[in-house]
Amino acid sequence: MTLLGLFLPFLGTSLGASTVFLMKSKTNPKLEKLLMGFASGVMIAASVWSLLIPSIELSGDGALRFLPASVGFSAGVCFFLVLDYALPKIKSRSVYPDRIRSTKKSKTAIMIIAVTLHNIPEGMAVGVSLAAARGENAYITAASAMALCVGIAIQNFPEGAIISMPLKAEGKSKAKAFIGGVLSGAVEPIAGALTLILTRAVSAALPYLLAFAAGAMIYVVAEELIPDSKAHGRSCAATLGLMLGFVVMMTLDVVFG
Length: 257
Known about the structure:
By secondary structure, the protein is an all-alpha fold. It contains 10 helices and 2 strands; from the N terminus they run H-H-H-E-E-H-H-H-H-H-H-H. It has one domain. The relative contact order is 0.26.
């Protein structure tokens, strides 16, 4: 059960990355918008039900139980805001001489870093839940621990796709794009395994780490996914995809959680 739980999220990322092999030479723009919208909806719902709510619940019953979630969430947003401006970007002149915009390649680099980094606290959450289920005085059931692993795996599916597909669109081979998507999720089983060993040391910081991951995900959605899904003309595909992804992830989190 422990091995399965550790590798389920990684499997979700790998399956999402494998969708690059189904891509044609030129992807339908409406399909791209739909997928980006769906990924946005999944990440927003997962941030609330899989990360922020557990962060608040793990913070106790006091009046300030919201504080770790607020601090962690703000730290996640600020970290990626600083990272966004600190990364060396490939610039290109737009039609307006006084404006400089980032190319698609620089956005993909930020996306890869963002997804990879926020997978670390998710891996920790998996490790802590599995360790708690294995303990003599287990305060969560094995089914609850596996439900968390399944929920994160489902969340990781579109993440693998939104890494591999842009890499393919930039000219990478399908094999290299697939490997890039897979590697972005490889940190999860590593972080989960380490957390199994260091559960006592990590559990106190877990509310902050969960909320940090939520802040990172929301930043990526607001800064990258939604603007890109709305680029190149208006389309309701992205909005419908977001609504569908949100409802699907919310339903799965509530049912399995």
